[in-house]
């Protein structure tokens, strides 16, 4: 759980410039002063998040907390591992 936390101006060579989370729950509370800003990575500039099943969602208010991050491949603010592909 992150509350009233600032994570900014970090760089990761590969994933998750601000936060890299694998198979764990991330809790960020909207309405607090938490910020994840101005971080950079190849994938997931702000947060790179791996979920264990397709029903898991990233439980945060992205607009107010995670912003102005940069990813060089994809996921400027957040990136999740693809969990499901449907071809029709």
List the helices and strands and how they pair.
Layout: E1 6-8, E2 19-22, E3 35-37, E4 40-43, E5 47-50, H1 62-65, E6 66-67, E7 70-74, E8 78-80
Parallel strand pairs: 1-3, 2-5, 3-6, 4-7, 5-8
Folded structure, characterized:
- The protein is mainly beta and 88 residues long.
- The chain has one domain.
- 5% of the residues lie in helices and 32% in strands.
- It is built from one helix and eight strands.
- It has a three-stranded parallel β-sheet.
The biggest beta sheet is recorded as: 3 strands, parallel
Q: Count the DSSP helices.
A: 1
User: What separation lies between the terminal Cα atoms?
Assistant: 39 Å
Give the strand line-up of the largest sheet.
1-3-6
**Radius of gyration over alpha carbons?**
13 Å
Helical fraction:
under 10%
User: pLDDT under 50 segments (min length 5)?
Assistant: none
Query: How many domains?
Result: 1
Number of β-strand runs: 8
What is the SS-derived class?
mainly beta
- Taken from the alpha-carbon principal axes, the silhouette is globular
Report strand %: 25-35%
Mean pLDDT: 81
Order of helices and strands: EEEEEHEEE
């Amino acid at each position: 759980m992150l509350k009233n936390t600032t994570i900014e101006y970090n760089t990761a060579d590969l994933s998750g410039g601000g936060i890299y989370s694998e198979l764990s729950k991330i809790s960020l509370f909207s309405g607090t002063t938490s910020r994840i800003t101005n971080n950079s990575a190849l994938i997931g500039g702000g947060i790179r998040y791996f979920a264990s099943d397709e029903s898991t969602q990233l439980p945060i208010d992205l607009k107010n907390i995670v912003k102005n991050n940069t990813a060089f491949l994809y996921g400027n603010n957040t990136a999740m591992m693809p969990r499901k592909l449907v071809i029709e």
